[in-house]
Amino acid sequence: MPEREVVQKPRLVVRKFLARPQHEGVGAVVRRSIGRFELKYFDPFLVLDEFSVSAPAGFPDHPHRGFETVTYMLQGAVTHEDFEGHKGTIGAGDIQWMTAGRGIVHSEMPAAQGTQKGLQLWINLSSKHKMTEPKYQEMLSKDIAEAAKDGVKVRVIAGEALGTKSPIYTRTPTMYLDFTLKSGAILQQPIQISWNAFVYVLEGEGIFGSPKSLPVTAHHLLLLGSGDGLEAWNKSSKPLRFILIGGEPLGEPITQYGPFVMNTQEEIDQTIDDFDNCVNGFEKARHWSSGDALSLDF
Ligand code: FJE
Ligand code: FE
Questions:
Q1: What is the residue with the minimal CA distance to atom 21 of ligand 1?
Q2: pLDDT 10s digits, 50-86
Q3: Segments forming the whole domain that contains residue 184
Q4: From start to end of 4-92, where are the E strands?
Q5: CA atoms within 13 A on the CB side of 209
Q6: Which of 211, 236, 252 is the last residue of a domain?
Q7: Which of 142, 175, 199 is the last residue of a domain?
Q8: Residue 24 CB less than 6 A away from ligand 1
Q9: Which of 34, 75, 154, 265 is 20 to 30 A off residue 139, Cα-Cα?
Q10: Among 265, 271, 257, which Cα is nearest to 102's?
Q11: Measuring from atom 3 of ligand 1, which residue has the nearest CA?
Q12: Measured in whole angstroms, how far is the alpha carbon of residue 294 from the centre of its chain?
């Protein structure tokens, strides 16, 4: 009996976006793919930014409520500091999984000379988790599980790949995998059938979904259609690196005002009120500032 394939109904690429650079924060540049006008929301994902920032630019004091931010560093380092005194620096390969929940006010600033690069993903929280206590999960590069087989290497940030599991707890069920395929390598990666999933290409060129499709290069976002997994090929002579992210859609109404994402307009009005008055989770914003010279109007 032949071995059963891990992917029986491969997902095809249904939409493709090139993320062009735009200005965000103070003097920072992001290539935004999810969260821009043409793709406001890909349930449960609100924003995907490939950011690039050099001192003195950055993302000075700003609030969040109702979702999670996941920062994955690719180059350099970023220091974050919040209104509870939680402070730290994440460097290349490290991850910070921040559940803003009912409220975080923080700054995210370059920590080194040169250009700091990374990805920041905003994952929506379901109505029952929006007002949860803020929480951080941080993993250093050396602690991120890696697996390799037949020219495919994966760093498992969330979820499971090649028999390796991540310890990250996801309130909105999410997979986050960083794949590198050597020249000639082929990938088959299962994805929950009911989840939304996309690929973001970081380096090299890859063929996704069908072996007959055209190669895709860096800074492209590919939305995947229905199916039980992803098939990808590196038919080029150079390494291919891409991120595969999937998540269970919440199927809830969303109302967004900048860094506040709730279900209804009333909840947004309440959030603006809470923030202005430093109550309901924003208490510590009253006497706090990171000390960054820059300031951000969100
Ligand atoms: C934010 C504008 C912003 N993408 N990528 C408005 F820029 C931000 C923000 C970020 C951000 C931070 C990092 Cl470290 C990386 C990012 C947007 O901080 F939250 C609002 N509201
Ligand atoms: Fe932030």
A1: 259
A2: 999 998 999 999 999 999 999 999 999 999 999 999 9
A3: 144-252
A4: 13-18, 21-24, 28-32, 45-53, 59-64, 67-75, 77-82, 87-91
A5: 19
A6: 252
A7: 142
A8: yes
A9: 34
A10: 271
A11: 25
A12: 25
